[in-house]
């Protein structure tokens, strides 16, 4: 009995030590996962001339509130994607335009926020602007909301072009009346972007990049953005004129969850 008790105490000691090591390892991994890899950068450090209007840091989005994980209004991307955007900006500046980004890297916790919102069918506060003709019960089936986003891999961004000299976009007021995102440009929210036919994050088939109903200057603007970016290695998501991914992606199978904050980046830890 004494030998068994001693052995048992020894086993408990070993198991306790292993538990401590495992817990420490898990803590270390969690801390590592809260930081960006070395090759993620703030876009402004690569090209400070690209305008940034980070919509998910504000309540002016389809949810109607700041989205989880957006601690600062900064665009974060993998360095290859940021440098390719810089090359696109150089081309557009020569033509009298500038790029403007609405969203860049998006943490998984933000995607989870979108999913929770989509599952709450009673919350339709922003329907009048962002999904006026879409039944909220169809957001997953129609592909507007998903449990994973390419944005979380760090090489996808949502963006538009603005004619120079760029006038500032006025602040959004949460109490203001909502106008459908596909309304004529002079009726919908006064974004300083050129007229793309719809506003950003418009849940409507008119937002499809090559929708045949979009013609004239609106189509020309979409093609200017598309041709500029695709010539530099970006791939457009056909259902969203604003959505582009730089290829090849450094992290094609990894969905990161570090916060959108300059503190998440190397050199600021």
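^ Assign residues to that structure.
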């Amino acid at each position: 009995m004494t030998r068994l008790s001693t052995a048992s105490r020894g086993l408990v000691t070993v198991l306790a030590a292993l538990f401590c090591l495992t817990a420490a390892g898990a803590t270390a991994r969690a801390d590592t996962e809260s930081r960006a890899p070395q090759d993620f950068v703030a876009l402004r450090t690569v090209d400070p001339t690209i305008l940034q209007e980070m919509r998910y840091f504000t309540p002016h989005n389809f949810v109607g509130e700041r989205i989880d994980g957006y601690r600062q209004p900064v665009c974060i991307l993998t360095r290859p994607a940021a440098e390719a955007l810089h090359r696109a900006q150089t081309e557009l500046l020569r033509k009298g335009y500038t790029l403007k980004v609405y969203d860049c890297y998006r943490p998984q916790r933000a995607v989870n926020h979108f999913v929770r919102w989509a599952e709450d069918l009673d919350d339709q506060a922003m329907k009048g602007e962002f999904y006026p003709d879409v039944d909220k019960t169809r957001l997953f089936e129609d592909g507007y909301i998903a449990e994973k986003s390419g944005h979380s891999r760090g090489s996808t961004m949502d963006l538009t072009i603005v004619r120079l000299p760029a006038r500032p976009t006025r602040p959004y007021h949460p109490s203001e009346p909502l106008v459908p995102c596909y309304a004529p440009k002079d009726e919908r929210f006064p974004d300083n972007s050129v007229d793309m036919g719809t506003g950003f994050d418009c849940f409507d088939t008119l937002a499809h990049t090559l929708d045949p109903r979009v013609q004239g200057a609106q189509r020309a603007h979409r093609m200017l953005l598309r041709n500029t970016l695709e010539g530099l290695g970006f791939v457009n998501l056909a259902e969203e004129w604003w959505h582009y991914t730089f290829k090849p992606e450094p992290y094609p199978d990894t969905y990161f969850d570090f916060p959108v904050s300059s503190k998440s980046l190397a050199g600021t830890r």
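The CA atoms of residues 197 and 214 lie 6 Å apart.
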